[in-house]
Amino acid sequence: MTHYFKNSENLPHNRKEITFRFLGINYTFNVDDGVFSKSKPDDGSLLLVENILMQNVQGKVLDLGSGYGLISVLLKHQQTDLQVTAYEVNERAVECALRTVQRMKLDVDFRNQDVLSGIEGEYDVVVTNPPIRAGKQVVYAFFDLANKHLTKDGCLYVVIRRQQGAASAFKALQLRFENVERIDLHKGFEIIKACKPLTLD
User: Fold this and answer.
1) Residue 15 phi, psi (nearest 5)
2) Is residue 140 helix, strand or coil?
3) What are phi and psi of 39, to 5 degrees?
4) Which residues of the chain carry a pLDDT beneath 50?
5) Which domains does the chain have, with CATH numbers?
6) What residues contact 160, with CB distance under 8 A and at least 6 apart?
7) What is the pLDDT of residue 9?
8) Are 156 and 150 in contact (CB under 8 A)?
9) At what angle are helices 70-78 and 91-104 packed, to 10 degrees?
10) Rounded to whole angstroms, what are the CA distances from 42 to 20, 77, 124, 158, 173?
11) Of the candidates 62, 26, 20, which has an alpha carbon nearest to the alpha carbon of residue 43?
12) Do 128 and 65 touch, CB atoms closer than 8 A?
């Protein structure tokens, strides 16, 4: 079985485009076999973007596990003053993302790298639709990275399905951030906002 959160060098390519409407605008993204949500945009990711835009975030944004760029591209296109950096381990997902931003003429810094091997910089906002199927250890490692790379007043925005561990993720975030709250719940997806990273041992 091929997992979208790993590289799949032996999987044949099936490059195509998906088109959808979001906040009154038509978008087209490049996708391929072996990437997450290749048939249509992920509902949880779209809900996450909507909520982040309503928060009026500013500054430098880090997207952990960015896939084919859905969250990063939508945020940048909707709010062009954001500086967006995105990390993704899946090489073909990054290739898709780069084709999309080149066509749209958007400046998003996509990096083909496993975030668990280390990332650079300090950010005002971290966003993630974490790879739940990779297991809690990986998901919570994403939370640790957000804790480490956020500014002191920075915030992490996470989307997780209720049935896939949202309650335990909320508790895990409370160990890493001073303020944690659920800001939306729709069709089983929870949007969690975690602000002010705590100092971890």
Assistant:
1) -70, 135
2) helix
3) -85, -35
4) 1-4
5) 16-197 (3.40.50.150)
6) 44, 130, 132, 166, 169, 189, 190, 192
7) 63
8) yes
9) 20
10) 11, 18, 24, 14, 23
11) 20
12) yes
* Token representation of residue 81: 């003053």
Structure tokens at 7: 């590289």
- The average confidence (pLDDT) of the chain is 92
- Cβ 127 vs Cβ 63: under 8 Å: yes
Whole-number Cα distances in Å, 133 to 60, 129, 137, 160: 28, 11, 10, 12
Give Cα separations from 196 to 20, 23, 25 (angstroms). Answer: 35, 30, 33
Give the H/E segment covering residue 61. strand 60-64
Tens-digit pLDDT profile for residues 35-51: 987 879 999 999 999 99
3-class DSSP state of 79: coil
38 three-class SS: coil
The per-residue pLDDT for 6 is: 53
Q: CA-to-CA distance for 128 and 106, rounded, in angstroms?
A: 20
Whole-prediction pTM value? 0.93
**Beta bridge pairs of residue 192:** 158, 182
